[in-house]
């Protein structure tokens, strides 16, 4: 594609997702510990005579190609701020599970924003880009930043976190059919009438800082406050979690609002073994191995 700009952007897993009570604006205050992991979408923007989106990859049939797509909204938000005609073709090469709790839609928003900023030579500052990301959605700023970060507020107020060692090994089990994030938050409200103020776990932050997978695994137990709600809406995920842990994962949890489940494993060999066992168990659609943290959205 001549004259285009391509941005590669990672998925995320929430190693902690502490959720408070619903706010008057309908959002929930969070203490959200994000880790970017090595499953990637690539978003290419190319000058065109009209604005349109296309998508390829294993999940392409589930991706909306209208202005509900965060990539479209990102391009249009940047164009309207700068009086630019957003006549571009946006192509999403999608490899992040859709509606899976891995911020795939948010990733495409951050990637399209960065790609359009480069294509149109806007030269936005990091702060300007992060402001637009926060308007687009709670997880979009993290997709831009990557690495590991604590997100407060509705998840968009980020503090980058240091991660020791060489990174963590993960297996992600995808499920048939997505889960709606608003529906999972509503189920959380129903199950949790008096949610306490969300706080990051000091032990979990320390496990990240030292790069200690065993310590992180211990901190993952009940670290996702949305997990009971996701399991309530999709009880079969309990079997997936059991299958991953009995295959040797150090810990298993629902990724964000689900239905993807995430398994922390000791090393690359364990990741292959757990992924094969998950597929053989018949409790998931497919299993993917990944490592994290990895960098956020980057022009390639
Ligand atoms: O911010 P984003 O558009 O990704 O959020 C999607 C939905 O998830 C919101 O409409 C809301 O129902 C829910 N949500 C929430 N509290 C947050 C983030 C998301 O209730 N902090």
Q: What key attributes describe this structure?
A:
single chain, 300 residues, alpha+beta, Ribosomal Protein S5, domain 2, Alpha-Beta Plaits, 7-stranded mixed sheet, 4-stranded antiparallel sheet, 35% helix, globular, binds cytidine-5'-monophosphate
Structure description:
The structure is a single chain. This protein is α+β, with helices and mostly antiparallel strands. The chain folds into two domains: 5-161, 2-Layer Sandwich (Ribosomal Protein S5, domain 2), CATH 3.30.230; 168-292, GHMP kinase, C-terminal domain (Alpha-Beta Plaits), CATH 3.30.70.890. It contains ten helices and eleven strands. The chain has helices spanning 70-82, 104-119, 126-136, 140-145, 181-191, 202-210, 213-219, 227-233, 237-246, 268-281, and strands spanning 5-22, 28-47, 52-56, 88-93, 148-152, 157-160, 168-174, 251-254, 261-265, 286-292, 298-299. Strands 1, 2, 3, 4, 5, 6 and 11 form a seven-stranded mixed β-sheet that branches. Strands 8-9-7-10 form a four-stranded antiparallel β-sheet, sandwiched between helices. The longest helix is centred in the middle third of the chain and has 16 residues, at 104-119. The mean pLDDT is 97. Residues 27-28, 30, 137-139, 154-155, 181-182, 185 line the site of cytidine-5'-monophosphate.
């Amino acid at each position: 594609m001549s004259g285009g700009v391509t941005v590669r952007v990672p998925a995320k897993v929430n190693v902690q997702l502490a959720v408070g009570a619903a706010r008057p604006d309908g959002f929930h205050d969070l203490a959200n510990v994000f880790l970017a992991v090595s499953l990637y979408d690539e978003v290419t923007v190319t000058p065109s005579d009209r604005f349109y989106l296309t998508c390829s990859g294993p999940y392409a049939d589930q991706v909306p190609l209208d202005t509900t797509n965060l990539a479209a909204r990102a391009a249009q938000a940047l164009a309207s701020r700068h009086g630019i005609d957003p006549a571009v073709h946006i192509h999403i090469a999608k490899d992040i599970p859709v509606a899976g709790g891995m911020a795939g839609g948010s990733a495409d928003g951050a990637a399209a924003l960065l790609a359009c900023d480069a294509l149109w030579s806007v030269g936005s500052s990091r702060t300007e880009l992060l402001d637009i990301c926060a308007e687009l959605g709670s997880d979009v700023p993290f997709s831009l930043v990557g690495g590991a970060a604590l997100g407060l507020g509705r998840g968009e107020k980020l503090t980058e976190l240091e991660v020791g060692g060489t990174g963590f090994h993960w297996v992600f089990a995808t499920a048939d059919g997505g889960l709606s994030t608003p529906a999972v938050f509503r189920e959380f409200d129903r199950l949790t009438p008096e949610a306490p103020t969300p706080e990051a776990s000091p032990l979990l932050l320390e496990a990240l800082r030292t790069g200690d997978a065993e310590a992180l695994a211990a901190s993952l137990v009940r670290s996702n406050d949305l997990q009971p709600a996701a399991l309530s809406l999709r009880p079969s995920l309990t079997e997936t979690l059991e299958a991953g842990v009995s295959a040797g994962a150090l810990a298993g949890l629902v990724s964000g609002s689900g239905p993807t489940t995430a398994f922390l494993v000791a090393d690359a060999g364990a990741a292959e073994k757990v992924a094969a066992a998950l597929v053989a168990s018949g409790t998931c659609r497919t299993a993917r191995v990944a490592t994290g943290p990895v960098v956020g959205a980057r022009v390639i």
